[in-house]
Amino acid sequence: MKKLFTISTGLLVIVFLTSCTKTLVLDQHDNQQTCDTGAVRLIADFEASRMDECQVLADNNYLITITPENTPINPSPWYAFKIEADTATDITVNIKISGNRDNRYLPKFSQDMKTWSVYPHKYRNKQLILNIKASTKPVYIAGQEVIDNQYYVDWAKKLQKTAHITHQQLGTSQQGRPIYKIESRGESNEWLVILGRLHPPEITGALALFPFVETLLADNPLAEYFRKNYNLLVIPNLNPDGVAMGNWRHNANGVDLNRDWITFKQPETQQVHQYLQQLVASGAKIKFAVDFHSTQHDVFYTMPTDYGVEDRYFVKHWLGALDKAMPNFDVIQKPGNRPNNGVSKQYFADNYQVHAITYEMGDETNRDNIDIIATNASILLMQTLLANVDHNKE
């Protein structure tokens, strides 16, 4: 796992006392939240942290309640906090999702915010139960690996050292955070568009996007030939507000960005749409788009072959090649057409008459496999697209 970075902000914490428990009700829109009994502290003071309410049930026994940013909402309950103590102390942490919802994510554990693993836990009465050894060295618990906004900036800087790309600000989010774009321009007017992190907790989608893009930008003959024939636009983190706030799914306005590609009421989708329209107005052609997400299992949501997009069998051939190249990985294609749903793949099909897919990795898919799948998918995508180029040159 690559190095992850954290940013702290401030918050006023309000404490309520009852006859049997102490409850800390925490402002979900900020990122400094503490459940402090003196000797032991449960803290959410870093970017992407979330701990909406904390009750001290008994000595060294805590109940954390996680509440969505607003409702209705797709259930992707996100939590992230750290634990520290004055001396080594055994504690029990119970995590409950408000509304008696199920936990979607298995708890991940880290001591350094770099290496993460699934933490041993029990699941009883819709609560995760963790027995943790707290000490002076903080330990981190989160629904998935923590990848914050700064991580994307540092990742892009590393890419610039090895690839001829530009990394510039495309626009700003609702709360004024920068939205960045990575570009590689060749000798063609055709563009491959890659989007990521529309939904903040969908970390396995991010873990797939990184090697996918790195493979496209690699220093080898295939990638160099591809970049000569296709331009690349990557917007890896389209919802920086939701990431910073530890949101379940939405942006700062409480809107699902992957339902806004038809109305463009949110600044994040508006700015991408406007930029793509500017490219097309200048003579560019959108060729294909990939939007990285996560769900409970690995699946590729595609457009139907009879929808009317150009090169109708392109995606079927690409993903078919991936399935053949990886006999131990089942490539599941799910074609669908939902013209009023506002998802990104539909937007590209309807506005540019081209294929687009939603690339979904399972929440608990093995992380090494995510990397291998993405690398192979990227290589085979380049080969499939270049086959069209070479055929047209004949």
CATH superfamily of the largest domain: Zn peptidases
- Residue stretches low in confidence (pLDDT < 50, at least 5 long) are 1-30
Q: N-to-C terminal Cα separation, in Å?
A: 44 Å
Q: Sketch the major β-sheet.
A: 8 strands, mixed
In the CATH hierarchy, what is the class of the largest domain? Alpha Beta
Description:
With 394 residues, the chain is of the alpha+beta class. The chain folds into 2 domains: 14-142, Immunoglobulin-like; 149-393, Zn peptidases (Aminopeptidase). 27% of the residues lie in helices and 29% in strands. The chain has 8 helices and 21 strands. The chain has helices spanning 149-162, 203-216, 221-229, 240-245, 267-281, 314-325, 344-352, 367-393, and strands at 14-17, 22-25, 33-36, 40-44, 53-58, 61-66, 80-85, 89-97, 108-110, 117-118, 122-124, 127-134, 139-142, 166-172, 178-184, 190-196, 231-235, 285-295, 299-302, 333-335, 356-362. The strands form 3 sheets. It has an 8-stranded mixed sheet, sandwiched between helices. Strand 11 and strand 12 form a beta hairpin. Helix 6 (314-325) crosses helix 8. It is elongated.
